[in-house]
Automatic annotation (TrEMBL):
Family: Belongs to the outer membrane factor (OMF) (TC 1.B.17) family.
A single GO molecular function term of this UniProt record: porin activity
Coiled-coil regions listed: 147-174
Pfam families: OEP
Protein name: Outer membrane protein TolC
GO annotation, cellular component aspect: cell outer membrane; efflux pump complex
Signal peptide range: 1-18
Entry keyword Zinc: no
Main location: membrane
Keyword Nuclease belongs to the record: no
InterPro entries, alphabetized: OMP_efflux (IPR003423), TolC-like (IPR051906)
Entries under SUPFAM superfamilies matching the protein: Outer membrane efflux proteins (OEP)
């Protein structure tokens, strides 16, 4: 009961109270710990233990109680008569109650082999759970970096709003003293309203993405939660540590153990038995009365010809091993392809980021010049807005490339099982 309660508590949604920051690694941990699949591994263990217990009970004595009452149309009798002897035939109504005990003596190690097979099956099934849980990391990556992108976009929009507000305050002062046209003020005000719409859209998108991440992690988070931009490193040609590889190895081991269990099926079965009973007639069919009796003995069962079934079962095991081998080869091939694709994305975004910095530097120089011209009244507000938008578009591009680079690195690490 305590175990069940503990498992149920595991699925109560965690609440992120004091902690207002969340890292990618913490997101992985929450997703793996709180997913319903995590509970499955424990139930698989309970199921396997119960099945093994049933197998082990096959070594214990078997006790059966049997009773029957019959009436038959004829009984054993002698056709003639013997001198000085009268033989009374058994009654046509007969009664018997017995207690039968049997004890397995030898089964060629079949029970031990089946027990090992159940243990191997458990390891395989539990590893399948781990593979399923590991796949959650891809989902975490998508949701996490989607929230992070919206989070960083909101910061840029707020910075852009501050700059626009500063220019608007300067233009208002210029209009007051007749140094600028009223239209310049209206243009900036309209741009601020447009920017406010963009902020509303980004905030709504971030809230939606945060809710998706919250559901995946089984966390109750607030809208003020800040995601950390991870500083990830990748190494080319790392050893593949994916849980699928361990699963393939366990599947092959299970098939090997299964093959050993099949080999035990052709061994003879030796058991001892005893029967104690009470009936009419007893063992002496000529004694027409209720008697108690007993029988003890030893029994041998050996199926010496099974029409090749055992051999066919072994062939099936061999075919399954080949299937597992081809699945592993295909998995490794796909992993190499995905790994190279993710690494190429990393190189691509690193190259784009180098150009992003150059573009932003040039745009900042242009905006500085345009800002000075706006203050001096030599250009209109619309011209300033064009250059301001150009700068922030460049910054958003850089921000997008940074998030895409981090996402590519995160996916690369997941692909190689890091």
């Amino acid at each position: 009961m305590k175990r069940i309660i503990a498992l149920n508590v595991l699925f109560l949604p965690a609440v992120l109270f004091a902690q207002q920051q969340l890292s990618l690694e913490e997101s992985y941990n929450y997703a793996l710990k709180n997913n319903p699949l995590r509970n499955q591994a424990d139930w698989l263990k309970e199921k396997s233990d119960a099945e093994i217990s049933i197998l082990e009970k096959g070594k214990l004595p078997k006790l059966d109680v049997n009773a029957q009452a019959t009436y038959q149309s004829d009984v054993v009798h002698f056709p003639g008569s013997l001198p000085n002897m009268s033989i009374v035939p058994p009654n046509k109504d007969q009664y018997r109650a017995t207690v039968d005990v049997s004890q397995l003596i030898y089964k060629g190690g079949a029970i031990q082999a089946q027990t090992k097979l159940k243990e191997a099956e458990l390891q395989t099934l539990q590893q399948q759970v781990e593979v399923g849980l590991y796949g959650l990391k891809y989902q975490v990556n998508q949701y996490y970096f989607n929230v992070l992108l919206k989070q960083e976009q909101a910061k840029l929009l707020e910075l852009k709003k501050q700059q626009l507000q500063e220019r608007l305050n300067e233009v208002k002062a210029a209009v007051k003293y007749g140094a600028a046209l009223t239209s310049s003020e209206k243009i900036l005000e309209a741009e601020l309203l447009k920017l406010s719409q963009e902020q509303t859209q980004v905030d709504a998108d971030r809230k939606k993405a945060l809710e998706q991440l919250s559901q995946l992690l089984h966390l109750d988070v607030t809208k003020d939660l800040v995601l950390e931009n991870p500083n990830l490193t990748v190494y080319k040609n790392e050893e593949n540590l994916r849980p699928e590889l361990k699963l393939f190895a366990l599947q092959e081991n299970q098939l090997t153990v299964s093959e050993a269990a099949i080999a035990k099926e052709v061994f003879p079965i030796v058991s001892g038995f005893a029967q104690a009973g009470y009936g009419n007639p007893g063992l002496n069919m000529l004694d027409n009365s209720f008697q108690d009796f007993y029988i003890v003995g030893i029994r041998l069962n050996w199926n010496i010809f099974d029409w090749g079934q055992n051999k066919q079962k072994k062939n099936i095991i061999r075919y399954n091993k080949e299937i597992v081998s081809t699945e592993r080869e295909n998995f490794l091939l796909q992993t190499v392809i995905n790994e190279q694709a993710a690494y190429n994305d990393i190189i691509k975004y690193e190259g784009l980021l180098q150009k992003d910095d150059e573009i932003i530097n040039l745009r900042e120089e242009v905006l500085t010049s345009v800002t000075s011209q706006l203050k001096n009244g030599t250009i209109r507000s619309s011209e300033y807005i064009i250059e301001l938008n150009n700068l922030f578009e460049a910054k958003i591009d850089k921000q997008l490339h940074e998030i895409q680079l981090s996402l590519s690195k995160a996916n690369y690490n997941v692909i190689v099982g890091k």
